[in-house]
C-alpha cells in the first residue's frame, strides 16, 4: 500500500475533480472514483429523496449511507460532519438542530469547501460553517460537538486510529457519533487493494468489519451498535478492469463481502479509557478464509 501522504494526495486530487462533476456521473462510479460503471445506478449511496433539509445542489452522490437519519440530533445541538463535501449532510443536520444549533463541516479539499460555502450562502444558512482541514487533525477545540456524523469518509483515511482519537477528543463528554462507512468481511484481491483509483473510490481503503468495530471500542467509546448494514456489489464492468475472468469467478464465489455499515457509539461522561488500540495491534487476517468463520 502506498505511503500515507501519497494516499491523501490521491484522494485530494480525485475529490477536487469530483467537486466539479454532477451527481449522476459520480453516482455511476464507486464513491465518485473515476472507475465508472456503464450501468447507471448507485453502487453505494442511499436515497435522500424526501429527507428534511436535503438540498439537491449539495448532493454529489458520494455517500454510502444516510447517517443523519440515525444520528439522534436534538434541537440546539452542535453537529460536526467529517468529510463534508458540498454540504449535503450538513444541511440535513441543520434541519434537525434548528436555528439555535450549529453545524460545522470539515473537508480537506479546497474545491469542496468553496462549493459548500457557496451552497450555504445561497440557502441563507448563518449557523453552518465549513472548515478546511484533515479529519485526523481537526481544526476544532476539545469537547465541542454533541454529535458527529460522517458519510463514507473514514475508509479514505490511512490512519483510522488517529481519526477515531480525534473524534473522541472533539466530542463532548456524553456526546455520540453516527458514521456510515465501507467495511470488508474477508480479503479483497490484491489488484483491488493496491489500485489508487479503487482507494479513492472507498473500497481498497476499507478494513475488516471486526477490526473497525474493535478500533472504535479501543478508543474508549461505549454503547457501540450497528444501526444499518447493507451488502455492496461491484459491477462486473468495474471488476474486469482489475481481474481476469478466472479471478472474477473466484472472487464472486469466495464469500468475501463488501458492506456499507452505519455505526453508532458514545463518548463516556468520564474518560475511563484503557491504552489505545491501533490497527497494527489486531490480528493479521491476510490468510484468513472468510468461509471458515474466523473473520
Task: Lay out the secondary structure.
Blueprint: H1 4-18, H2 23-27, H3 67-70, E1 78-82, H4 88-97, E2 102-107, H5 110-123, E3 128-132, E4 145-151, H6 160-170, E5 171-185, H7 190-194, H8 196-200, E6 207-208, H9 209-218, E7 222-231, H10 236-239, H11 245-252, E8 257-266
Parallel strand pairs: 1-2, 1-4, 2-3, 4-5, 5-6
Antiparallel strand pairs: 5-8, 7-8
Q: What share of the residues lie within helices?
A: 25-40%
Instruction: Using the coordinates shown, work out and report the CATH topology.
Output: Rossmann fold
Q: Label the structural class.
A: alpha/beta
State the low-pLDDT regions, or none: 32-42, 283-288, 290-295
Main beta sheet strand tally, sense and closure:
8 strands, mixed
Mean pLDDT: 82
Tally of DSSP β-strands: 8
What CATH architecture would you give?
3-Layer(aba) Sandwich
> At the fourth CATH level, what is the homologous superfamily?
Vaccinia Virus protein VP39
Overall 3D shape = globular
Helices, by number, come to 11
Percent strand equals 15-25%
Reading the helices and strands in chain order gives HHHEHEHEEHEHHEHEHHE
Distance between the termini: 21 Å
Whole-number radius of gyration? 18 Å
Count of individual domains: 1
CATH C-level category: Alpha Beta
Amino acid at each position: 500500500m502506498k505511503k500515507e501522504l501519497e494516499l491523501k494526495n490521491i484522494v485530494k486530487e480525485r475529490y477536487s475533480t469530483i467537486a466539479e462533476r454532477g451527481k449522476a456521473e459520480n453516482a455511476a462510479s464507486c464513491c465518485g472514483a473515476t472507475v465508472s460503471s456503464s450501468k447507471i445506478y448507485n453502487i453505494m449511496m442511499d436515497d435522500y429523496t424526501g429527507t428534511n433539509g436535503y438540498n439537491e445542489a449539495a448532493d454529489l452522490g458520494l455517500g454510502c449511507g444516510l447517517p443523519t437519519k440515525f444520528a439522534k440530533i436534538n434541537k440546539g445541538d452542535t453537529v460536526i460532519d467529517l468529510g463534508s463535501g458540498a454540504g449535503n449532510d450538513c444541511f440535513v443536520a441543520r434541519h434537525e438542530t434548528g436555528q439555535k444549533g450549529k453545524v460545522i463541516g470539515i473537508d480537506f479539499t479546497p474545491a469542496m469547501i468553496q462549493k459548500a460555502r457557496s451552497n450555504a450562502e445561497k440557502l441563507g444558512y448563518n449557523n453552518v460553517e465549513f472548515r478546511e482541514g484533515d479529519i485526523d487533525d481537526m481544526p476544532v477545540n476539545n469537547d465541542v460537538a454533541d454529535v458527529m456524523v460522517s458519510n463514507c469518509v473514514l475508509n479514505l483515511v490511512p490512519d483510522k486510529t488517529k481519526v477515531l482519537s480525534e473524534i473522541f477528543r472533539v466530542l463532548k463528554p456524553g456526546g455520540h457519533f453516527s458514521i456510515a462507512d465501507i467495511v470488508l468481511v474477508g480479503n479483497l484481491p490484491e489488484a483491488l487493494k493496491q489500485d489508487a483509483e479503487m482507494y479513492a473510490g472507498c473500497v481498497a481503503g476499507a478494513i475488516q468489519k471486526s477490526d473497525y468495530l474493535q478500533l472504535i471500542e479501543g478508543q474508549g467509546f461505549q454503547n457501540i451498535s450497528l444501526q444499518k448494514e447493507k451488502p455492496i456489489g461491484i459491477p462486473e464492468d468495474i471488476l474486469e478492469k482489475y481481474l481476469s475472468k478466472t479471478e472474477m469467478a473466484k472472487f464472486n464465489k469466495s464469500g468475501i463481502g463488501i458492506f456499507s455499515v452505519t455505526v453508532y457509539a458514545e463518548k463516556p461522561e468520564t474518560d475511563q479509557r484503557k491504552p489505545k488500540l491501533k490497527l497494527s495491534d489486531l490480528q493479521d487476517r491476510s490468510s484468513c478464509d472468510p468461509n471458515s468463520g474466523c473473520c
